[in-house]
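The methods section describes the discrete structure representation at length, but only in general terms. Since the whole study asks how a given chain folds, the encoding of that fold should be made plain. An entry of this sort, consisting of the sequence and the corresponding backbone structure tokens, reads as follows:

. . .
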Amino acid sequence: MEPPNVVATRVKKVLPCLMLPSSFAGIDVVASAVEDGVGLLRFRRSRKDESGVSESRVVGSSHGWVVLFNHKRRHGDLFLWDPISGRQIKLPPMKTLPDAYPPFNMGRASMYKVIISCSPDRDECRAMMIYYGGLAYCHPGRSPRWTRIDEKGTWYEDFVYSASRKQFFCLRGDAEELEAWDFTASSPILVWSVHLDDFHKDDDWAESEDDSEDEHDTNYHLVFDEKSAQLLLVTRHLLTSHTPRESTFKWCYPFKTTSFEVHRVDWENKRLTSYMNAEGSLGGISIFIGRNHSLAISAPQLKPNSIYFTDTHGLHDIGVFDYENYTFSPCTYYKPRSDVPNLDFDAQAPFWFTPTKCL
């Protein structure tokens, strides 16, 4: 594969960017999440794509790499892709999973998310996957197959890696159990596991009741703030179908995020406390969630006390949530297409991408 031709490269700050896949335009665009002109990357993909990049689906974004899943190929190919250099690193295909079976599709049940712990050029790098609700890992570029590490029958909602603690934090069920996995030894070790049902929770933890006819759902995201060494649990409330009564096609309408809650996880004292300082904010941090490796960073170019989010179910639910004022605003560089159905898996949703090490 020929590397993409860089049309324009102008980056003053290394910050997360919103990557717009080529299904929305003739070129791949990575536009910074900050104000116009601070950072802008544009890539033009080679017309002849023999690597399968253009027909693959994004299942993760981590440490300057995009994780792609080619469900159209017989073995369910997976690989890491650097959009800037065009470099690729093969991951073990889906067929090496102990209980995976063809046809491999993009449904949440088969392949939900993949992240890596650091640059794949480092020997200690590990890739972690949620598939069929379970956990599996591999050594990028070195492992011939994926290895499942959880007990069958479990369901994982999200995970995040902490570089300072050198651990993967994993969330099971509907925020029911939290685990920490250590990969510094030859085999992964479950360091601790706690049931969140046993935690003391603030009053705002309880989900508010809604007597409307709309259907609701809750998603959970784990975020580790390396600066404060805080593990955060982000609760995302959504409308899963706000459908006109005369319509029978409920699932063709976009999901819509209605609110967020952020809690600190204190596993030693078994407490979940609202992440709100004396000013009623997130302490100035900005949180990025979606298909990406979740991030919590502070930078003057970003909107402080805000959650930048992308759609993990469809194509439309993308924006910025001001946690201090409880208001939503659209992303500067992206306007959802109204002519793409919410569950059109041939269309690719935008996602957060960080070219190199984040601030």
About this structure: The longest strand covers residues 230-241. The radius of gyration is 20 Å. The mean pLDDT is 75. The chain has no helices and 27 strands.
